[in-house]
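Quick one, C-alpha cells below. Sequence please?
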C-alpha cells in the first residue's frame, strides 16, 4: 500500500476482490489505474481455501502465472486436504440440519438489512414435509422510525420483532427468547452470507454433533476506502481456513480461553439454542451500544468453553462483511470495541471466574504490552517515512483499554439497570 494512504491522506484507494476457482482455467486479473492493490479469495470447487492481499506497485494486471505460482506454493497442501475431505464426505453422505433460526439484530440500517434479506433467499427452500429449513427473525432494536418494519412486511418469510430496550445484547436475548430452531445463528446486518454458508454449517454440525457453538470465516465484502484496507491489512475478522475444535484446554496457549477473539466473530456465529438458554443468554451489560459496543460475543464464547462445552470454528461457514468506510468510524471501533469492550469483558471475567484470575491478569498485562509495542513500531515507521498505521488510532485503542479496565463494566451494569427500569 502506498505511503500516502497509510500515513493519513484521505484519497479513495481500492483493492478489487477477485474470487479464484482453482479447478477452472486461470486468466490475468485486470487492475485499473486507481487500484492500489488486489485481494484474492481462492476456492476449490466453491470451498474457500485461502485469501491474501497484495500491492499493485503500478501494475495494470496480476498475471495468471504469478497468481498460480502463489496458490501452488501456499495452498497445495490445503487443496489436497480438501480433495480428501470431499471424497470422504461423499462416501459418508451429507448431514441434514435441524430447523435453523437466523437472527438479524439491527438498528436503523434498513439498506443493509434489505441486502442481507435478499441474499438469504438463496437458502430458504421448502422441505419435503412442507416445512422449511430456516426461520428468519428480524429484531429491530429501539428503532427511530418504522422503515425496518415496513421492509420486513415485504418479506413473508421474515418474522419481525421490535425490541425497545437499546443495546445489541438486549436484541440478541430477545431473539433467543423467540427462536424456534434447534440452532440459533446470528448474522450482523452488514454481512452477506457466502453461497456455501449453510452447507458449511451443516458439515460442521454433522462432523461435531457434540458441539454447542459454531463460528465462521469473515472476509471483506469490499475494499474501497482507506479505512477498509487498513482494517483488513491488520487481519480484519479472518481466522484462517482450517477447522478448529475448541474445548476445555488448548495446549500451548497459557492464556486460553481468555483471548476469546480467537474463537471467531459475533458477526457470524451460531449456538445450540437450548445450550445458550441454559447459559442465560448474553450479558446485557456488554454490547450496550456506543458506551460499550463490544465484548458480548467474547463473553458468550468464554462462558461456553469454561462450562466444558465445545465450540467449532468452520471456515466454510463464511460471510462477507462490509467494513467501516470512514477513518473516524474505524478509529471509534478500535477504541471502543477492541479497547473498551475487550477490557470490560476481561474485568467481568476477573470478578466472576476467580479460578482463572492469574491467567486473566496475565492477559491484561500481555494486551497492554502488545498494543503498546505495536504502537511504538508504527510510530518509528512514521518517523522514518515508511508505511504505517495511524498512531492516533492505536493510541485510541490503548486508551479505550484503560477506560474499560478502570470500572467500565460496572458503569455499564448500572446503565443497563436504568434501561431495564425504564422499560419495566
Amino acid at each position: 500500500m502506498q505511503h500516502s494512504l497509510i500515513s493519513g491522506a484521505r484519497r479513495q484507494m481500492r483493492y478489487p476482490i477477485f474470487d479464484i476457482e482453482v479447478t477452472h482455467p486461470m486468466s490475468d486479473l485486470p487492475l485499473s489505474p486507481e487500484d492500489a492493490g488486489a485481494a484474492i479469495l481462492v476456492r476449490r470447487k466453491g470451498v474457500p481455501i485461502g485469501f491474501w492481499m497484495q500491492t499493485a506497485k503500478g501494475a495494470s494486471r496480476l498475471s495468471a502465472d504469478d497468481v498460480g505460482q502463489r496458490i501452488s506454493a501456499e495452498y497445495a497442501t490445503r487443496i489436497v486436504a480438501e480433495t480428501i475431505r470431499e471424497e470422504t464426505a461423499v462416501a459418508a453422505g451429507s448431514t441434514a440440519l435441524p430447523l435453523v433460526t437466523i437472527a438479524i439484530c439491527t438498528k436503523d440500517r434498513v439498506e443493509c438489512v434489505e441486502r442481507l434479506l435478499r441474499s438469504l433467499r438463496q437458502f430458504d427452500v421448502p422441505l419435503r414435509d412442507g416445512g422449511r429449513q430456516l426461520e428468519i427473525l428480524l429484531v429491530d432494536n429501539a428503532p427511530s422510525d418504522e422503515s425496518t418494519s415496513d421492509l420486513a412486511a415485504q418479506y413473508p418469510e421474515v418474522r419481525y420483532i421490535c425490541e425497545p430496550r437499546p443495546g445489541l445484547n438486549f436484541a440478541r436475548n430477545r431473539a433467543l427468547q423467540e427462536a424456534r430452531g434447534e440452532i440459533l445463528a446470528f448474522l450482523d446486518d452488514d454481512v452477506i452470507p457466502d453461497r456455501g454458508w449453510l452447507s458449511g454449517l451443516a458439515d460442521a454440525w454433522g462432523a461435531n454433533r457434540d458441539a454447542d457453538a459454531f463460528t465462521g470465516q469473515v472476509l471483506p465484502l469490499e475494499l474501497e476506502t482507506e479505512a477498509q484496507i487498513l482494517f483488513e491489512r491488520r487481519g480484519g475478522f479472518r481466522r484462517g481456513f482450517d477447522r478448529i475444535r475448541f474445548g476445555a484446554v488448548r495446549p500451548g496457549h497459557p492464556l486460553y480461553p481468555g483471548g476469546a477473539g480467537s474463537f471467531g466473530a459475533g458477526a457470524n456465529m451460531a449456538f445450540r439454542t437450548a445450550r445458550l438458554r441454559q447459559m442465560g443468554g448474553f450479558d446485557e451489560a456488554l454490547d450496550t451500544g456506543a458506551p460499550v459496543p463490544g465484548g458480548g460475543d467474547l463473553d458468550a464464547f468464554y462462558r461456553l468453553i469454561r462450562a466444558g462445552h465445545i465450540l467449532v470454528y468452520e471456515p466454510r461457514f463464511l460471510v462477507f462483511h462490509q467494513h467501516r468506510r470512514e477513518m473516524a468510524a474505524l478509529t471509534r471501533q478500535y477504541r471502543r470495541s477492541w479497547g473498551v469492550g475487550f477490557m470490560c469483558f476481561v474485568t467481568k471475567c476477573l470478578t466472576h471466574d476467580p479460578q482463572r484470575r492469574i491467567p486473566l491478569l496475565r492477559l491484561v498485562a500481555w494486551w497492554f504490552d502488545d498494543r503498546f509495542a505495536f504502537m511504538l513500531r508504527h510510530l518509528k515507521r512514521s518517523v522514518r517515512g515508511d508505511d504505517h498505521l495511524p498512531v492516533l488510532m492505536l493510541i485510541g485503542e490503548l486508551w479505550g483499554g484503560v477506560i474499560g479496565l478502570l470500572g467500565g463494566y460496572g458503569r455499564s451494569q448500572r446503565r443497563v439497570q436504568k434501561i431495564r427500569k425504564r422499560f419495566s
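Residues 1-10 have pLDDT under 50 and may be disordered. The longest strand covers residues 310-321.
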